[in-house]
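fyi for ur records
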Amino acid sequence: MTLQLSAEDERTLACLADADAVTPQEAVIRAIHEAAARRGGDGKVAAASARARERYAEVLERFRETDITH
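which gave:
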């Protein structure tokens, strides 16, 4: 999966990641989970997240191995 962001959204994501001392990928995942929790869909999102993490495990591993600078 590819996430296309505007330059401003990329800067915002980088700031969120820096503030939490996590990768941009982890910041996105956390934001998704937080939004889902506010909407009361934790169970469905957790299951969907688990399926997506399994399906995209190889891609996620490559993200972890990539040095992302901002």
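The longest helix spans residues 24-39. thats all i got for now
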